[in-house]
Amino acid sequence: MQLLDFALSIPSSPLCVLAEVGSISSVTSLPFNPIKLVCLVSWIYLCLYFVQRIQFSPLVPHRYKPVAYIVALFAGPILLLLLLIVDTARKSSETGDGIFETIRQQVKQVVAGMRSARLRRDTKDPTIKLLDSSGRSINDIYGHGDARRQESHVLELTEQIIANALEHRASDILIDPVDELTSTIRLRIDGVLRTVKTVKAEICKAVVNSIKAVSSMDISEKRRPQDGAFIAKKGEMTASFRVASAGVLSGEKLSIRVLNQDAGTFSLADAGLSEKQCSIIQKAVSKPSGMVLMCGPTGSGKTTTMYAMLNAIDAFTRNVITVEDPIEAVLPKASQIEINPKADITFAKTLRSVLRQDPDVICVGEIRDEETAEIALRASQTGHLVLATVHSDSNASALVRLMDLGVSPLLLSSGLSLLISQRLLRLLCERCKQPAQLNKSLIHEFRLKGIDSTNMFDAEGCKHCEGTGYYGRTPICDIMVVTSQLKADIADSKALIAELRTKGKRKDRSRLRREGLKKVAVGITSLKEVKRVVG
Ligand SMILES: [Zn+2]
Fold first, then answer.
1. With 80 as the cut, is the pLDDT of residue 316 above it?
2. Could you say which of 23, 220, 399, 425 is the most buried, measured as most Cβ atoms within 10 Å of its Cβ?
3. Mean pLDDT, all residues of the chain
């Protein structure tokens, strides 16, 4: 019954009733839900029943009977139409798109959903195995064999959710309670969150428990935040997952991060950087010392670019040590250390011990505090190449952030050699992109800026891209070489900080936008996407 309950869960919009027939939301793989079929048949039966009652009812005058028949037959569809109008108006006001654009998008999603459901029925692969860090399967940990049937359904559902996330290249799976009765399962695909299912809270709790069990977390602890990890095996492929739980107002929230195992194999060009950018970075990482600082918000692909930089370093002649939280992918030529703040293995402490191991290149997963920043910058001045990331939205804010942390401007100016600020843009789906319809003033504006607008495309949507119009992502980078002039400006911190705070962020943003427009001009991404990411 659990799976049927799951299938019966209330959709968030009337169109979802249709979309659920099989979009990526069909984690249950029940594309033609029997319950919904029964509801439809009952509805038709009720319409016919009322028509028959009207026919023999003395209360309805004979001349009004044809009108009454029409009302009885069309009451249901009219109600559905009204619901659709209200829902479309709501979505249109939320997204800012026009009514017709919203209707077009919704219809496209439904059509793409139905097509992908048909595909999935043919390609359903139940062989995914979820294992804890010691290799025990989820069945052994949580299933207790076949004795508890209800739990075997839950495990099946958990496996389907994970398989679905892998199939759709999701970077995160979010399981959130909405209220006491319902929870949502969302996937972040190409950086955009999509609600894939609304589930009954009771079933969702069991799914959350099974994931917590396989991630070696305490099932009975619902409020205190916990961390864990598990792996999934499907044929030859192995994927790692990082799990974080937290008690929220209406229950327990679970965030699962899918670690990108391929990230360790990319070169700078594979990671999507231009030839000029590759050569600037290559020059910086070939030097024996200095710090290359990657800036960007969460999910901006900093780690992938960092791994690509490490791959550009000759690790056979240089001793490469990384300090990360967590280790996202295996780098065969580097020594990787994972920090564990709970066990008091912090970035700062690990860095100190790493420095005693005679490294040539040190990679610092993230600079979060003054101590880590200072050790890393000092190392970059004493014959070590340091690659680090800092959570900030531009190069200017990264400099301000480090100074705010308490790092001395002198240390900063002598240590830094390169700053890279990065964002990810979704790539247009090659199978369905359409030539962009630009108005005359926009074409004129591009001409004034020297941008060729003849090869611009817009998103359309097909079954390959699940109706979104996008497939995969590419980075845009704003690279700032720390010249001797900039070093002098950083050392004289007050004047620079004032300028960075007022103009720096805006300048960085416009440089990123220009990088984005270059990619729009060659037809690999859209103007809308650049606007969404850079503003
Ligand atoms: Zn497409």
1. no
2. 399
3. 83
Per-residue pLDDT tens digits for 262-282: 777 888 998 889 999 999 999
Residue pointed to by tokens 């990890």: 229
Centroid of ligand 1 to alpha carbon of 30 (angstroms): 24
What are the residue boundaries of the structural domains of the chain, listed by start? Answer: 2-123, 129-259, 262-426+474-526
The CA 113 to ligand 1 mean position distance, Å, reads 12
Per-residue pLDDT, 189: 94
In this predicted model, what pLDDT tens digit does every residue of 228-260 receive, in sequence order?
999 999 888 889 999 999 998 888 999 999 987
Give the tens place of pLDDT for each residue, 73-95: 777 677 777 877 887 887 777 66
Q: Which CATH class is domain 262-426+474-526?
A: alpha beta
Q: Are 480 and 474 in contact (CB under 8 A)?
A: no
Q: Find the mean pLDDT for residues 338-344.
A: 86
pLDDT tens-digit profile of 34-75? 777 787 788 888 888 878 777 777 777 888 888 888 887 777
Q: Which of 19, 494, 414, 478 is nearest to 276 (CA)?
A: 478
Token pair in block for residue 40: 């439809």
Specify the pLDDT at position 344. Answer: 87
- Residue 512 to residue 45: CA distance in whole angstroms: 60
52 CA → ligand 1 middle, Å: 48
Query: Ligand 1 mean position to 298 CA, how many Å?
Result: 26
Q: How far is the CA of 434 from the centre of ligand 1 (A)?
A: 10
Distance 457 CA to ligand 1 centre (A): 12
Give the Å distance between the CA of 110 and the centre of ligand 1: 14
Calculate how far, in angstroms, residue 24's C-alpha sits from the geometric centre of ligand 1: 15
Max mean pLDDT among 144-153, 379-388, 394-403 falls in 379-388
User: What is the C-alpha separation between 485 and 167, in angstroms, rounded?
Assistant: 49
CATH architecture of 129-259: 2-Layer Sandwich (3.30)
* Number of alpha helices (DSSP H) and beta strands (DSSP E) in the chain: 19, 16
d(CA 431, ligand 1 centre) in Å:
5
How many A from CA of 518 to the centre of ligand 1?
A: 22
How close is the Cα of 145 to the center of ligand 1, in Å?
Answer: 43
Peptide bond into 326 cis (omega under 30): yes
Alpha carbon of 108 to ligand 1 centroid (Å)? 11
Contact 203, 226 (CB under 8 A): no
Decide: pTM greater than 0.90. no
Tell how far the Cα of 436 is from the centroid of ligand 1, in angstroms: 15
Q: How far is the CA of 467 from the centre of ligand 1 (A)?
A: 6
